[in-house]
Amino acid sequence: MLNNFVIFGVPRCGSTHILQLLEQYLVKKYNVHREDENEFFNIFKKIPNNLYINHSIIKLHTWATFNNLIEYNLLNNRSIAVTRENNVEMFASWLIAMETNQWTLLAKDIHNKILPKKIIHMSDTIEGKFNIIRYVHSIVRFNYFLNTYNLPVIRYENTFDDIKKLYPDWEAPYRREYLIKQNDHTRYDYIHKNDIDFFNETYHRWKNESNLDWIDFSAKDNLYSCKAPWVSMYIGPNGDVTPCCTSLGIKLGDTNNNTLAEIWNSNASKKFRNEMTKNIPNINCKFCYEQEKHSDGSLRTFLNKQYDMPTKNLSLTPQLELKYLDIRFSNECNQACIMCTPKLSSKLYDDAFGFKEYISKFQDQNYISSPDNMSDEDWKKHKGIISISSKTINELKELLKDVEHIYFAGGEPLIMKKHYEILDFLIENNLNEKVFLRYNTNLSTLKYKNINIIEKWKLFPKLKILPSADLNGERGTYQRWGFDWDKFKNNWLEIKNALPQTKLGMQITISSLTIGYLPEFLSELKKIGCNNMNSNFVHGPADLNPQVLPIKLKKIYTNKLNRYISKTSSDVHKKLLHEAINFMNDTNNTDKKMWERTLHRLDFLDKKRKTNWKSLWPEFIK
């Protein structure tokens, strides 16, 4: 749930009045606030930050709003519907408002009422007929969603009584005579009879339509849909299964309690597939949406391109033939990266919980939550090393014959026994030349007991390795505690020399700590001949997101990165830095409390590690 309150209707249904009548009550009852109402008419056409509105009152109309995004809001929020008993009255009111551009209905504004200067005859042109058809579409779609989601209804003609039925403790902020009498038939004097006839004819032709495809104004380029729930599976160290590694909030099942086959077609899996067939965005897919805004792709776009099939007609209960496997055998790790979580690093338990206790001394509860938004009880289950069961590994082996792409990450996969067990299974079953392996590793070691990973990798011709490093030197170690740039560099070069056919690059995670020092790091990468790199931005913890940087620091870093861009000949470097600049400056509404939280985090780590962040980022002090 997004904890919004949606007032749903069509233009001239009376939603403005309902909003005004209920605003004070809703703010108090549901702890929401009202945004500028004009933001909420047609905002859901692309991938805006508005997709992530929270704790707000939203007025949402079907007019020009995509079906998929209407469903997104109705699925994820509390909602009421506002309508009228007489559609023709509503249509006539809409026509007059279109002509005069006056949309208010309050009786106290009646003396300022603007009336048409001529008879409105919209249906006498093709464009006019199209607009009337669109209005009919709005009503038909409204009725469809009203019935589908069984929304509570407030009818304008019975506003006060209907509100009281829904909210018995509501008290009206003004008297009911302040509302204009809606059955004022004098408005027909300003509307050509042909318009009324055309509206009635169109409405009665389509009013019972339940298939909205033909009147769907949704984006046709699958702006939000993803192939993940048909081809992909992410299995976390604690047994949680989600569609992919960037949608951890969409829990499809748990391998501790269910088989992979049961999870594949669980109710949660079917629900998510249904959303994807309708191109409905999911708040838990935010990482990909944001990545696409500031770069040329995401895991969503990769899967859609790799497995190009029309999402709309896919089964909600497909046969389990896994194509893309993202497996995290364990959270066992030898580094404590500042932007990671205890779920994925056994070294972070004390850091994460310790910081929660530390920050509570300085900030109120609105800025404090357990890592990964887990309850303290659930969070404590992740103390130490956790790993998936041998039962799950055996189930996976039965599926590997169909798998085309395996993504190994951690924890640190190169120090996990089960990782080598899967590699040996692939080799023994002659699957090693078929499957594409992709790694995210901290490259702290190339050996596990008596196993040299390079010798194993030589048997896999389809191999891509993107080791994680964000900065060199002390700053790199501060972000990834336990990181040694010299050891990392030597291991990277050893792979480059031993496996020239391998796609070897770098995975760079851009945070508020690293973004200003990317030029220095890119210069180091150039020295070792690294030209292939991926980047992703820190979204959580929120205080490490580059967007929380104060405006003055954003300007300093933007200028620094632009200077490097103007001098470098590398298109790869230019692209990465342009994306970083755009992401950082996507919003200037810097949350001062969140920035304070950043500095408190650094103070906490300094105290624990005996480090000194002020010597590494002196600009933060200024």
Task: Give a structural overview.
- The two termini are 39 Å apart.
- With 622 residues, this protein is an alpha/beta fold.
- The longest helix is centred in the N-terminal third of the chain and has 23 residues, at 126-148.
- Mean pLDDT is 84; it is low at 37-49 and 364-374.
- Strands 8-7-6-9-11-12-15-17 form an eight-stranded mixed sheet. The protein has a five-stranded parallel sheet with strand order 2-3-1-4-5, with helices on both faces. A two-stranded antiparallel sheet has the order 10-16.
- Strand 13 and strand 14 (451-452) form a beta hairpin.
- It is globular, with a radius of gyration of 28 Å.
- The protein has 24 helices and 19 strands.
List the helices and strands and how they pair.
Elements: E1 5-9, H1 15-30, E2 33-34, E3 56-61, H2 67-76, E4 78-83, H3 87-100, H4 126-148, E5 153-155, H5 159-166, H6 193-206, H7 228-231, E6 232-235, E7 240-242, E8 253-254, H8 260-264, H9 267-277, H10 286-294, H11 299-306, E9 324-327, E10 336-337, H12 349-359, H13 376-380, H14 390-399, E11 405-408, H15 417-428, E12 436-439, E13 447-448, E14 451-452, H16 453-457, E15 463-465, H17 473-479, E16 480-481, H18 485-498, E17 503-504, E18 506-510, H19 518-528, E19 533-537, H20 551-567, H21 571-584, H22 592-609, H23 613-616, H24 618-621
Parallel strand pairs: 1-3, 1-4, 2-3, 4-5, 6-9, 9-11, 11-12, 12-15, 15-17, 18-19
Antiparallel strand pairs: 6-7, 7-8, 10-16, 13-14
Helix pairs in contact: 4-6, 12-22, 20-21
